[in-house]
Design brief:
263 residues; 28% strand; globular; alpha/beta; single chain; 4-stranded antiparallel beta sheet; 6-stranded mixed beta sheet
């Protein structure tokens, strides 16, 4: 079973502390939603996991399947089975999409796929994601719509088949149909991996059914809970957490289904 742990993580960007003593644990099957106001450090947390070049770890550890990956290079982390879907997917001029998909599969698969098997697999995903076949001959994300870029991130993740998937506002800028489609892709594979997602939309969270919700404010974990916590934020905002950030970040993660049952 896949396990993931962040312990007392403090990070900086351009010599400024962004995250301070952040800790969380996850196991296979967990779907963790990270909420917080703009500038709280949510994206920085995901980028730190991937060892982004502009983020420096000042203190703490990142463990995946009992391996300390805190100082691993990004490519090593990816090959371990960790996938990061960008909030603003990058356009890759000069790199054809189908060739890019081939690299993803063959770099992360124990058995290399032949061209026709790869093409068949990609075509099925294109259909399921309601993406046009023509993107295969186009450069990665170049002249794609915002929705197509987000769907392309999900397509790549399906080809990559990660053990831990990090989704940075994958639902932003999507229409209702595209949001539901992506939510379906996330939930269908949730039991076989760990999912950590940043989102601002309660409806989307209801669709993906997170069993853990974390409020991040000013680079610190302000509170943890379940989907009920997300409803509270939608109603009241983050003001109370901005004004009262606790020093002790050891919180009990409550299973939402057990909590609802007790009520």
């Amino acid at each position: 079973m896949n396990t993931f742990r962040i312990s007392n993580l403090t990070t900086s960007f351009d010599k400024k502390i962004i995250l301070s003593n952040v800790s969380l644990t996850a196991k296979q099957g967990d779907v963790i939603a990270i909420l917080g106001p703009n500038g709280a450090g949510k994206s920085t947390l995901l980028k730190t996991i991937m060892h982004h070049s502009q983020v420096q770890v000042k203190k703490g550890q990142i463990m995946f399947n009992k391996q300390n990956i805190t100082n691993w290079s990004t490519d090593q982390i990816a090959k371990l089975g960790i996938f990061y879907a960008f909030q603003n997917p990058t356009e890759l001029e000069g790199i054809q999409s189908l060739e890019f998909f081939k690299i993803i599969v063959n770099e992360n698969s124990k058995q290399k796929l032949g061209f026709y098997q790869l093409y068949s697999n990609v075509k099925k995903l294109l259909k399921l994601l309601n993406l046009p076949d023509e993107i295969l001959t186009r450069n990665v994300n170049v002249n794609f719509s915002g929705g197509q870029k987000k769907k392309n991130e999900i397509l790549q993740s399906e080809l990559f088949n990660p053990s831990l998937i990090l989704l940075d506002e994958i639902d932003s800028g999507l229409d209702i149909d595209a949001t539901k489609l992506i939510a379906d892709f996330i939930t269908r594979n949730a039991k076989k991996r760990i999912t950590i997602i940043i989102s601002h939309h309660l409806e989307f969270l209801h669709q993906i059914k997170p069993n853990k919700v974390i409020i991040l404010v000013n680079g610190k974990i302000a509170k943890t809970g379940n989907i009920v916590l997300a409803k509270e934020i939608e109603k009241n905002g983050y003001k109370q957490y901005i004004e009262n950030i606790p020093n002790n970040q050891d919180f009990e993660i409550i299973d939402p289904y057990l909590a609802c049952h007790k009520q």
